[in-house]
Amino acid sequence: MALIEQVGQKVTLEVARTAAYGYFLTDGEEDVLLHSNEAAEEVAEGDQVEVFLYPDAHGRVAATSKMPLITAGEYGWLKVVDTKPGVGVFLDVGIQKDILLGEEDLPVHKEIWPAVGDTLYATIRVNRQYRLYAKLATDPVIQDISENATRNDFNKNVTGHIYRTAKVGSWIYTLEGFRGFIHESQRAGEPRLGERVEGRVIDVKEDGTVNVSLLARKQDALEEDAASIYDYLLSRNGAMPYSDKSMAEDIKERFGMSKGAFKRALGKLMKDGKVYQEGTWTYKKEE
């Protein structure tokens, strides 16, 4: 098999000769350059060397003895190291050359593209011109590495990465190995592809997959809402023109919460002795 047809793979070649800038390796029919910058150690003529083949900037086959995290057809979790609008995102596969995940394989909306530091489960694909690109894992691939959740996992906190996203929801693979779905109603905003998120299991399906919510638990949400209202009150010197009689749309615009959530949080503040209401206004209670 020609060396060009083996790009994206590990091969063992023999050192045919040395040069000032590296080594020429051979399979008996073709030679390929292992540049000194890509050699993990010094080698001599006749040595057998395991290398990874990749195309250089000119499309020629080059070799590196610095082994990648994955090869063509193998999947792994890869870090995003750069993003280029109109091009795509670049993933670190463990060699000097980063691999491009093209724009056509990313969400239409740029705001949910992976950011630097996000993690994607992907493999290397080789196109017809023998260039290397990244390819995201599909649902069947994720399913192959997944563990089944049980009823004992209900209501547990989980952390994971988003591996697929859509308007209706996001799909997550958790650190426990669970494959889950986050309905759009269970997220405050749409997470990025590859983003690490924290949530809780709100349902365990018969097939072992889970439904996950990224929303705060009710008690946590109540505490956060109460703190948000109180901070706003303090920013207005202890008086604000909002109360449990305020219009729902006014509350939503000012505090970003429903009237029900606002009333519960306000009730907590009154119960804690921090505020009181007079008419349509709310005031800070003096200590």
Automatic annotation (TrEMBL):
Pfam families for the chain: CvfB_1st, CvfB_2nd, S1_2, WHD_CvfB
Transmembrane regions listed in the UniProt entry: none
GO molecular function annotation: nucleic acid binding
Domain of life the protein comes from: Bacteria
Xref: InterPro entries: CvfB_fam (IPR014464), CvfB_S1_2nd (IPR048588), CvfB_S1_3rd (IPR048587), CvfB_S1_st (IPR039566), CvfB_WH (IPR040764), NA-bd_OB-fold (IPR012340), S1_domain (IPR003029), WH-like_DNA-bd_sf (IPR036388)
Listed SMART domains: S1 (SM00316)
Domain S1 motif stretches: 155-217
Family stated for the protein in its record: Belongs to the CvfB family.
Protein name per its UniProtKB record: S1 motif domain-containing protein
Organism: Neobacillus notoginsengisoli
Classification lineage: Bacteria, Bacillati, Bacillota, Bacilli, Bacillales
